[in-house]
Design a protein that fits this description.
The protein is built from six helices and 20 strands. It is α+β, with helices and mostly antiparallel strands. It folds into two domains: 117 residues, no CATH class; 227 residues, Sandwich (Immunoglobulin-like). A hairpin with a 2-residue loop joins strand 7 and strand 8. Keywords: Membrane, Signal, Transmembrane, Transmembrane helix.
């Protein structure tokens, strides 16, 4: 029995060896994303924002069977503005909305009527972000702050593309402006086992209006996600964060999310830990199968299914970077074959005992 256990451990170690030795030489996806932001007046005018309600609904694309790519996150953003024309004249106000990154499904309405985009302009980064930039990234699972080592668009691009449109504001009237669109996240796979996603929403452009009053923010995230928001917000329920501000915050909104990777893989934070856990699973499975109390075939099959799922949950998550990611398929196949060999030997012994 001891010799057989040693053979099993040796085979499992051979399967895991490529993963343990090649992780440092692999490549992972690291890409920041342009910030999105607040409406910005392009002409001088006495127009104030009485109230803004910002809704950010984070969606996670579901992955298929044994998809080794990390999930894609997108933000369905909806912003409601109450705008007040303080003058005695009607104003045609050209407005820019910073959104140079990937976005689609634009919809703008003023008092319920659709407003068409008129084009794009480039606005200097400092005008949109001010002098207080949030360059560091944060791993929301641990709260650790770390420098981003991937491609940083803020270092390379100084002028941000902004969508433009015109609205007509009646004299002395309050109008309801609603902007809806979909924005993408920046992503960092290298920093830890679980990817970190980042979304920046600019608030600094709001300072260009004649006055800005109340701001309400609501952020909804996928279930079992780890979240960090730089602004002071309260958690309501399991997946909603809300914040109310009487004045414009000094910082822009920076949202970090690390979605759940799986039932078992979520237990680990380093890349080597899941592989070591797989070895321990094989040992535990072997010992459990040798117990004399397990004389029922159906119980043994159920045990096999549970341990197989644990291996799938771990190895279907992207642990190794390119070009070694595909090795995880072969490790999983080897892991399942080892479990099957142990199970078949156990069932054969059960049949022999029943025959006697």
């Amino acid at each position: 029995m001891k010799k057989f256990a040693a053979i099993i451990l040796f085979l499992q170690s051979l399967l895991l060896l490529p993963g343990l030795t090649s992780a440092n030489g692999t490549s992972y996806f690291e890409d920041s994303e342009f910030p999105t932001g607040h409406v910005l007046p392009l002409d001088d005018g006495i127009v104030s924002i009485l109230r803004e309600e910002l809704f950010i609904d984070v969606k996670q694309d579901s992955s298929g069977f044994f998809n080794l790519e990390n999930p894609t996150l997108r933000a369905d953003i909806e912003v409601h503005y109450e705008m007040f024309n303080e003058t005695d004249e009607d104003l045609t106000m050209p407005i820019a909305f910073p959104q140079p990154g990937q976005s689609d499904q634009w919809n703008i309405t003023l008092d319920g009527k659709e407003v068409a985009l008129t084009g794009t302009i480039n606005i200097h980064q400092q005008e949109l972000m001010g002098s207080d930039r949030h360059d560091d990234w944060i791993q929301p699972r641990t709260g650790e702050t770390y420098p981003f080592e991937g491609f940083n668009v803020l270092e390379c691009v100084k002028n941000f593309e902004s969508k433009t449109f015109d609205v007509v504001l009646k004299a002395g009237k309050t109008h309801s402006l609603v902007v809806q669109y979909v924005a993408s996240f920046g992503q960092d796979e290298r920093a830890s086992l679980h990817p970190v996603y980042r979304l920046d929403y600019l608030l600094h452009p709001a300072s260009y209006w004649s006055d800005f009053n109340e701001l309400t923010i609501q952020i909804d995230v996928p279930s079992r996600s780890s979240v960090h928001v730089n602004l002071l917000m309260e958690k309501e329920g399991s997946y909603t964060f809300k914040g109310n501000f009487d004045n414009l915050p000094e910082e822009d909104i920076v949202l970090f999310i690390s979605p759940s990777s799986g039932l078992f893989i979520d237990l680990f934070n380093t890349r080597i830990s899941p592989f070591l856990f797989l070895i321990s699973l094989v040992v535990v499975f072997y010992i459990a199968m040798q117990r004399s109390v397990l004389q029922n075939k159906w119980f043994s099959i159920c045990l096999l299914l549970v341990f197989s799922y644990a291996g799938y949950d771990i190895l279907s998550h992207k642990i190794l970077g390119y070009p070694f990611t595909a090795i995880q398929y072969f490790i999983f196949i080897g892991y399942i074959l080892i479990l099957l060999v142990i199970s078949l030997i156990k069932m054969k012994r059960i049949d022999l005992k029943r025959g006697n």
